Amino acid sequence: MTNPPSESANLFNDNHGSGYNVHVGAFEGPLDLLLHLIKKNEVDIYDIPIAAVTRQYLEYLELMKELNLDVAGDFLVMASTLLQIKSRLLLPVQVDEEGGEEEEEDPRAELVRRLIEYQKYKEAAQQLEVLPLLGRDAFVRSSELPELKEQQLVDDTPDVELFELVEAFRRVLASLPVQTFHEVGSEQITIADRINDILSLLQERDSVAFEELFSEGTTRDYLIATFLAVLEICKLKMVKLTQVSSFGTIWITRAVQDAADAHEGEE
Amino acid sequence: MTGTLKSVVESLIFVAETPLSLDRLASILEEHERSELRAALEELLADYDQPGRGIALVEVAGGYQFRSRPEHADYLKRLSRTRPPKFGQSSLETLAIIAYRQPITRAEIEYLRGVDCGGILKTLLEKKLIKILGKKDVPGRPLIYGTTREFLELFSLKNLASLPTLKEIQDLAQPPVFEEQGELPLAAVTGEEGTGE
Amino acid sequence: MTGTLKSVVESLIFVAETPLSLDRLASILEEHERSELRAALEELLADYDQPGRGIALVEVAGGYQFRSRPEHADYLKRLSRTRPPKFGQSSLETLAIIAYRQPITRAEIEYLRGVDCGGILKTLLEKKLIKILGKKDVPGRPLIYGTTREFLELFSLKNLASLPTLKEIQDLAQPPVFEEQGELPLAAVTGEEGTGE
């Protein structure tokens, strides 16, 4: 067993003594870990000592690494959030050029809201678990009734979900030999065709995901024609490209929205 | 006469493979008034509520179904060949969030849990505990999820309104809002980090 | 005590997949004497022999089983009168192809599925889940198919644009990639077939 640094052994000391690392990996995520640290330190959730909690959080991640556990990306994201909050708390309140009128919110506020929300659902999950579970606590008739054997019994709702439909489609595509699949779209596709396709898509909807334009065809010609078509209509300023987050989906929207459609686009 | 109707209702609930709703009952027994059906159901519920019965008539997922009494679970497990359903903490958390917040997008779930939930969502979809409700009317049109009838059946819930009341963390100043929800006689679990599995 | 045993026996018979014999019962409830079990069974038989019961306890194939009363058979048949569409894999696949590739001809569907779909198309047309949109402007003028309003209702979809895309489902299986995603979205397309199990 690796001995955690003595400092962290103190920090993570609880009723279980230094056998704390038994719990390693038992956290459902960064929020779960943070809640644990807050409880352990017996601090007010509305007044989290960010510096101390951040230090403990990072030490925990170190511990995870020492134990060769994969530190999931989600834990790292939270680590940087904590550090950011910490540094914002250290900085003197800046005078904002754009919006001087609004009061600067406590940098911890959003985190506190998330923690409280998370705690609520964590407890709800525990309550779900103690409900009488079908197949564990309660059972239904499982015998086949001979008098009704030949009849299919009916459900209140049809026994099919959207997910099954998509999965069925995926199965079809997966079973296609790649070679023959390519032949499907082997007819000549021009950039003009694809421009028309995209523009007519945008007649029906406000926005189209960039990827979606490529989902139909798999031939090289098709993909290239589509790509050039997007470049072309961008150049002609017929459409706009937007991306909400870095690496997020790129959205294609009409450059000029019809007045008639305007009310639909409202948020 | 009522005696016969009650007995017909009893066998219909018994034979149906999923909880039988009053609506469905009414469409099967068109010749009867809804009030009669309701009365027959009430009588049946009372009959099965007697002490010493091994079968319970429960209201679940918007209908009525016969189920074994939970107190006999230990005996019944000896019969059953299938393994009882078991949930990890992450599945339960995700289910809870979807149950209470539906319709909800994946991004919203992940914001609340602080971790990626794609794999869990897929498993829950495959188990039919959640379903895709459609797409949200926001940019990007993300998929929105909700719970299914199977979810209610699995957790023995009458409907979504009978989900255990959400507890606020600590004793916050304001009194709980959903005071009249108390249908389920479930003691609130005061779990620490009780994932003890 | 007998009350409890009777109730345990009742739930065991109810849950068992096949008629429960006294032997099997005795092996499940080892802690009880056979004479006790027999007594509990006798009591149960008497209970269920009351007039006005919709469920009968019958001795069949060397064991005990609950059945619905034969005199209610007519009502029970009504349970299956309005059967909603039930999908086999091939129907679902065909429906999925039409939903995602409409307008589409029969030949194109059969090309994708690799089998004849005439029968399934007919059934889907009868169930009003698909409709004939017209004829395609190619030699032979084949019929082209698309989905109906009933299709949307079945899946609670607002419109066809709310159909989840294949990619949206596949994305669930893979955790988000942080580093190298940004290049060309072409990779996502070619990766599509790769994930098929």
Automatic annotation (TrEMBL), chains B, C:
Xref: Pfam families: SMC_ScpB (PF04079)
SUPFAM superfamilies documented for this protein: Winged helix' DNA-binding domain
Listed transmembrane segments: none
Keywords: Cell cycle, Cell division, Chromosome partition, Cytoplasm
Superkingdom to which the source organism belongs: Bacteria
Protein name: SMC-Scp complex subunit ScpB
Organism: Geomobilimonas luticola
